[in-house]
User: Fold this.
Amino acid sequence: MDPPAKRFEKSVGIAHPSRYPGNFLNLLFDFIMLKKHLPLLLVPLMLSLVGCQPSTLDFRNADISNGKIFSGSSNSPFSGLVTNVPAEKFMGTHAGFDKVSNMLNQVTGGYMSYVGRLCDVHVADGVLDGTITCRRPGEENTDIDASFKHNQLTEQLKLIGQNQRGERFRTEVNMQDGQPDGTQRSYSVDNNVLVHTVQWQSGTLFGPEEVFDKKTGNRIREANIIGGRYDGEMISYDLDGKVLRRLTFSNGVQQLDESFDPGTGKMIGQIPYNYDNMHGLVVHGIAKQWDADGTLISEKTYKFGTEVTAASTGSGDLNQCVDDWINAFRKEQGADAIGSHDQLTEWESWCKSGKRPN
Assistant:
């Protein structure tokens, strides 16, 4: 095998500079070697420069076809950052977003909407993939911060809404497969006080709900939700933690409304409800009122929203008979017992047939 100097002479056609004295030939050698290998040296540099410069596309130069974003007349879906995208171009197809924003609106009395926002979104192969930020035109602060993976909302979603009084609220919740999953927490933007928590399971409300005073942070309401419907007691408190009102639900339908005096803590009102397709939700049964000391001051019987009186039945004796059955029922079941619709109907039928309690 030839020595290195000989191989160099064969490859470049000149003698190795070590065979010649002087700086000129040494410089000529350096130049030839640089010229020969320069393209190879520039290739990784050019690749690194391309890799660190992400593609950016203004939405005015983009096209949407079959749910994917393209750059101008390109036939390949775009990948990179798309700026100034109207939020309504993509948020309207994500039901999970609506669930979170509607919950914020319901609790705060505000209005959170993506309409009119301009967004900077990351896409891969033409679909949402990566972080997005949205803001009102001309504003710097964002009011929508989200992440997408393969066009599905994921990780944490943050929204900011405002009510008619100008109060601003922020809500946060984890998203999984496009749906809220976990605890949604809402805060007052002014003082960062927690104002509401609710639980989501794969896009369905399920678990405890709590509402807090926006100034003090004290709990003012608690309830339980099963399968997206209130079930059990919904209790409202004053700022000192005293019970003001207690609603009872069954599978989303209100059954009872009880109110309490904040000073004595005693019940001052009790209204039973019934729901059916014909009448809707109406007062049905025995409604009672007490004064602050617990003395009964009013007691009325309702049938599908209408008070049962001598005038409505056409017979004072019939009305008195029904009352006698109600009193007999309470003697047996307790003073706070509430007669059902079926029981009232049965008692009325008995009275018409002449049957009275012993």
User: Anything to note?
Assistant: The chain is about 25% helix and 40% strand. Confidence is low (pLDDT under 50) at residues 41-54, 310-314. Helices lie at 4-12, 23-51, 95-108, 310-313, 316-333, 341-352.
